[in-house]
Structures are given as structure tokens and as C-alpha cells.
Amino acid sequence: GDGDPPPSPTEPGLGSSGAEEPRAGSRYRGCADPAGGWRRPHPPRAAGSLFEAQRCLLCPQQIPNPLGVLGSCRGVGEMGAGTPILGGAAAPPSPPRSLFLSPPSMFQTLYSYFWWERLWLPANLTWADLEDRDGRVYAKASDLYITLPLAFLFLVVRHLFETYVATPLAGLLNVKEKIRLKATPNAVLEKFYAATTKHPKQADVEMLSKKSGCSVRQVERWFRRRRNQDRPSLLKKFREASWRFTFYLIAFIAGMAVIVDKPWFYDLREVWKGYPIQSMLPSQYWYYMIELSFYWSLLFSIASDVKRKDFKEQIIHHVATIILISFSWFANYIRAGTLIMALHDSSDYLLESAKMFNYAGWRNTCNNIFIVFAAVFIVTRLVILPFWIMHCTVVYPLDLYPAFFGYYFFNFMMVVLQSLHIFWAYLIIRMAQKFITGKVVEDERSDREETDNSEEEEEAAKNGPLSNGHPVLNNNHRKTD
Which parts of the chain span the membrane according to its record (predicted)? Predict the structure, then answer.
């Protein structure tokens, strides 16, 4: 089994000098130990850089590098003796005897552990099985390096799109900005706003009133105007929604073009047929690179984008999506990955288009699109994804190989993503209820702008409607809610 120990010095097969002699059926590759004594198998030496191949500590045997680039070994490594080659895969190296690792040694150790084949691939499979040969091309980790510069290119394209496409479109749709009254500069109030809270309690308001020399009403008005200054403008929201709508629509059409003619689109068992020896198609390569680059760009710009109430959930979603896309590429889960990405893009463009019409004031159009979006979201995220796609990634692989770390990790991240879908479905259902009851549909995640009306409005919020400056009493004035 994979847990067999390395041969001992007295085990048959070791010569009088301690060197391991070749024997039929042996799973061990023998290497000389420069420290003397008996000789035992060694793990691969960590490559000197990400672009070098791994080699055994002393043997000339070259071990395939998962990054797909071969190079020369830089001599005997410092990582010391290790463990045997088991099941055709290199076991992770044993750490040096020294308690403290030098930075190069630490990097090499982490690198070897990170790319240990037992983490990424099923048993009895190695990175050598995924080397390009006979015209068949496989996914490599080094392919994803291009996604980072592409992410910054996306940010540039987005800026140009919002400036020269989204802004004129906003003008055509009559997206107007509200005139916002700025808060009067006040050092005392500004310090409390920045350091303590944007929403002071009544006791804080009274305390600030004394410190700043303003009335309580003036302090409340100042905080209301100051909060509105930090809220994104309607034009900013429209431009952001139009950019995402454009990308999601194009990505969905492209994704369907990539998978619609594939057998695994109609029979999910085909996703795992021949795994992991599944060559990569050019269309799959570009679909992955563009999707991953876009989500990197969303993560880079999240601090400057419109902040909603689910800001933390958005960060978790972007990180989980990036991890899932990257891992599915490393482990050659490409067929499953393309299905998941296309499924997600199927509803996102509908949501962004509904936002655009909402910002333009087209309420009926917004509500109609929202109905379609809610139906598509619930069917794809709460029905198809868990009961078809996740069933495909959880159940079908076990018919081919035993569960391994990558299997558990991938499906755990799918559960994280599905938890976010349930959370967003709850918000969508709340909005649907408002629509059914005749209320205006608004994004439950939005931070609504506060109006800067007269003092009578604030008094009405506390004491009920006003008539000639006095509260109106009705049959319910004694009730407390």
C-alpha cells in the first residue's frame, strides 16, 4: 500500500555497501546518501525556480514539473533524505533537521508540498500523465500567469467602456443625477464621523451638539448630508451595471458556444470519461482565461466599486470563484468548470440589465426583467447546480477513483458557493414579495440615499403625520408598534 515504509539497512535487496540493488517489482528508486551509511530512496529535489524541472537529490532522473517547463538541475539539493516514490507519485519531502528554515529551503519545501501529486490528482496518477504528447495538449498551472496582466487590461477596457459607451448611453436613457447638498465643514463632526460612526445615536448627537456649537437638528442634518456625499452617484451605478451586463451577456453566449456541441453538455457522465487524460481545447483555454481574468479584475476593483450590504459576501464569492476556476484548471476539471461558469453567467446579465432600467426610471421594464431573472436564478442556482452539477462532481468521480484531497477541496468550495446562492435567493424572494404586494422593486443590497427634507418630515417619522405643525391623532395613536 502507499503507507509501506522505505527498506531498512538490513532488508533484502541492499548490498554490502548499503546501496540498494535493483530488484524485480521494486517500487523504490534508489539514491546514494552523501552523508554515508546505508543508502535509501530520496524524494525529488525542489526546483531552483518555478520554471525548472524537479530532479532526484542525486540521481539524473528528471521528474515532470507541473508548471510544464523543464530546465536543468542546479546540483545536489539541501532538503535531505525523504520518502519513497509511492504509487508512481513523489511523496512530499521530509523537512530539514534544522529547526529554522532558510528562505530558499522554506520556499522549496512549500513548493514541493504544494505540488505534491496526491493533493491534486487521484491515486496512481502523476503529472507525467498530463504532459503534452502526440498532439494532445493539457492544462498547465503556468497558463494562468497571463490572467493577472489580463485582469489589469480588463480594468483599462472597463474605464474606456464606461467613459465612451456607458456614459452616453446613460444620457440617452435620461439617467439624471440628484443635486446633493454638501455638509458644512465641521472639524468636530468630521472627526466623529470618520473615527467613531456614521450613524450616531441620540445621546451622541446631543453630545456633539454641545461640542460643535450646533443645534441637535443641525447635527442630524450634517450627518445625513455627509452620508449622502459618500454614497455612489446614480451615474456611477449605471455605468458599473452596464459594464457587467455587457461582459456577462458576451460570456454567456461564448460559454454556450464552447459547451453546446460537447457530449458532456447532454450527458454529465461524459464529464469524467477518460479523466484526467482529457486534452484541452483552444475554446476551453480562452474561456477559462477570460473568465478568471474578469473575476480578478472584480476583486481588484471591489474597493472602488459600489458597496452594497453584501460587501463581505461579494468578496467571499469572488475569492471562491477564483479558487474554483484555478483548481479546476490545475486538476484538469475543465469539463465540469465550463459547465459551472456558463450556468452562473446565465442569470447575471439579467440582473444587471434590470438595474440599468431601474436607474433609468423604467420601472415596468425593470420589474418584468426582474421576474425573468428571479425564475432563471432559482432554477439554475437552486435546482440545476446542486442536483445536477454538484451531483456530477460528488458522485460520479467515485466510480472511477477513490476520493482524494482535491476531490474534497473542490466540492467544499462548491458548497461555499452554493451557500452564497441560498443567501442571495433569500434576498430575491424578499424583493419578489414586494413586487407582488405592489411595492417598487429595489435591490435589497443597495444602500439607499437619504432625503434632505424639512424638519416636519423628521418629526413625522417620530410622532406621526403633522397638520399645521401638530401631530395628527387618529384611532391608532395609542398603539405602539
Answer: 245-265, 285-303, 315-334, 369-389, 409-429
